[in-house]
Recover the amino acids of this structure.
């Protein structure tokens, strides 16, 4: 038996003619690109932060994505570079572009996703609906915003937040003092974002894919349920959204993709308010948790579509297999870490459920997998997806 | 950038708790197990014959599957061993079993798939419907069979045939002399199989999956179209087969799986005759070309089901997403080898088609991919699947 090194040229000789996609970052989003890449006959290569990550089956290199030389060496072996996350620094992205690498989405689009104040500024200038907001540099400015908004607001760090991290509801001007202090010390920007606390009835997400030559394809609008700032459940399509609401969110997402020149998948998280307004919450320029349902519920999943889009290939049909789909995240997992022992009962009870796990060790609150169920009745698919996922709770 | 070797232990540390499936053989069937393995969070490892094969993304070793030491070394690192093909010799399989390795399907079942005379003998002894057949050792015995069957018959080598190789229609007793001569020189058995030339109206295939603890789940019966002995198209479900025909084929496949103790996927290729009889043609104890439609057309694909079955996990639901599905093979591919140049037109014309390529270089007659289309109307899905696949013809 010969053990062999994937980095030797020989192992890839069969794929010499295949289109090569390089993904920076080895998390579950890169992992979930692997099945459609294998199916479409693409050569997918991942630059992982370290060994043993979720996308390790496709990792051809490990290295620090903050280092331009590392990323350039990886990029030279692929036809296009795309991302598992939005954290690659602008100087590294610029070095790739200078070297002639196709980077999708490009640095200008990613700059908007990397900084929430840049994002809010840009969306406001496009006239798109966003909550009231301000960039605040100190407690006095935060206090003024609170006075103008009924004494309550949401403060967010401009950079580096995700899954509820870097987000805080405040009711007094001194409740973000630690973050103001940190601004001077870190690369998190020179101001905090403060926003009105939106009275929403529910949260929605609208994803689209866009390719460089211009084609844009939206998926059905979905409803999302967040718990502790983390996506817990998604229902596709969002109940009762056909017509005006879905038309509005589709228009918003297509306009953002086009105005910001986004290539690949763009996910727009939205609030639906008590008074039936739609407000933009967050943007993600990559496949997103709110689109995982599409793996099993849509003709073209967000991961396949992202690959097509960044390669500038024609986009696939986004329609659904069934009237409705529910996706429930598996968060945390068993305390003893023994995920495999939970499979028999789960698979036996719900043979129609699609189970997804990311090769990540269980840890409290961590997204380690998800379950999708499709069917005719929304209450039924939500019930079954929740019960299936619950087999993996502690 | 650190290039790294998948065979080092570190890269797998995250999957220490994952169930490990080892696949012997690196062809497209092993490749198509990769997406569901990734989705289910399984650790899939392939022993490939050489670098650069279809399943190389999951290959952790290369080596000769005829060598027991090679296969044993590979098998010791996984929870269960299964197969891309049925060619692993019985002495190697016996060595695995002796070492305590879980081998699925097991050696006794594989013995029936490895030798067509053993297969016919076994099916006949079970009283299952097969064409008239005989094991013939020389031209005289062949001549006697021809005399008894209207002067025409099909001769098959007992071992090593596939995709029309090792199959010949004969009308005279001397037309298999070369094969009789070869019998003495090769491991192809000590007799040839001769069968009546069945007057069939169409060919069918019935797949089931069975796990060691006994659960058996059939997929819908499909109609298959062979050209030059190679599977060209598959329609699921087989038109007009609901009721008696599908009940019969389901019963046959379940009975074979149980009687032969098959674990994993069993595909039974069948003839439907002019007089509405069902006769068994061939068996395959692994995912099979006639089941590729299930990747995009069924809730649980044959590749996911095979993984579940060999791990003795509960089986998934086999139902279809849509009323009908058509799968058309891409055979050969462009003479210039440039498959990638064909993607834009194909993907643009049929955004709803699911394109699959196996990372294999185009070569006349070679199975390099397939296309599946699902929908409401059988003529429509067949038309579109054919037209989509034709984009990749020379």
């Amino acid at each position: 038996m010969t053990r062999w090194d994937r980095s030797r040229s020989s192992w890839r000789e069969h794929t010499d003619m295949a289109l090569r996609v390089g993904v920076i970052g080895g998390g579950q989003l890169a992992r979930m690109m692997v099945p459609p890449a294998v199916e479409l006959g693409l050569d997918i290569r991942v630059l992982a932060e370290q060994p043993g990550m979720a996308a390790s089956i496709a990792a051809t290199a490990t290295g620090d994505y903050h280092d331009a030389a590392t990323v350039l060496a990886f990029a030279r072996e692929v036809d296009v570079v795309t991302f598992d996350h939005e954290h690659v620094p602008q100087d590294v992205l610029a070095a790739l572009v200078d070297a002639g690498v196709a980077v999708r989405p490009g640095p200008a689009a990613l700059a908007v996703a990397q900084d929430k104040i840049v994002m809010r500024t840009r969306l406001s200038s496009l006239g798109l609906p966003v909550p009231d907001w301000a960039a605040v540099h100190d407690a006095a400015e935060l206090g003024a915003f609170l006075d103008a908004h009924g004494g309550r607001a949401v403060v967010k760090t401009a950079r580096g937040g995700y899954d509820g991290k870097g987000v805080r509801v405040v009711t007094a001007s001194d409740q973000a003092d630690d973050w103001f202090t940190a601004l001077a010390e870190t690369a998190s920007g020179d101001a905090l974002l403060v926003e009105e606390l939106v009275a929403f009835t529910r949260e929605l997400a609208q994803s689209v894919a866009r390719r460089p030559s211009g084609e844009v394809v939206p998926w059905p609008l979905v409803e999302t349920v967040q718990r502790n700032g983390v996506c817990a459940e998604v229902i596709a399509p969002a109940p009762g959204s056909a017509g005006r609401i879905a038309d509005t969110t589709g228009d918003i997402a297509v306009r953002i993709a086009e105005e910001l020149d986004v290539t690949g998948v763009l996910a727009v998280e939205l609030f639906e308010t008590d008074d039936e307004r739609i407000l933009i919450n967050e943007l993600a320029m990559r496949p997103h948790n709110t689109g995982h349902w599409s793996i099993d519920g849509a003709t073209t999943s967000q991961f396949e579509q992202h690959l097509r889009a960044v390669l500038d290939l024609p986009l696939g049909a986004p329609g659904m297999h069934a009237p409705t789909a529910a996706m429930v995240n598996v968060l945390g997992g068993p305390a003893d870490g023994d995920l495999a022992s939970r499979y028999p009962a789960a698979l036996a009870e719900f043979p129609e459920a699609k189970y997804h796990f990311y090769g990540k060790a269980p840890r409290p609150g961590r997204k380690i997998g998800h379950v999708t169920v499709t069917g005719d009745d929304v209450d039924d698919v939500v019930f079954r997806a929740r019960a299936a996922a619950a087999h993996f709770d502690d």
In short: Chain A touches chain B through 76 residues (CB under 8 Å). Residues 11-103 of chain A form a domain with the Rossmann fold fold (CATH 3.40.50.20).
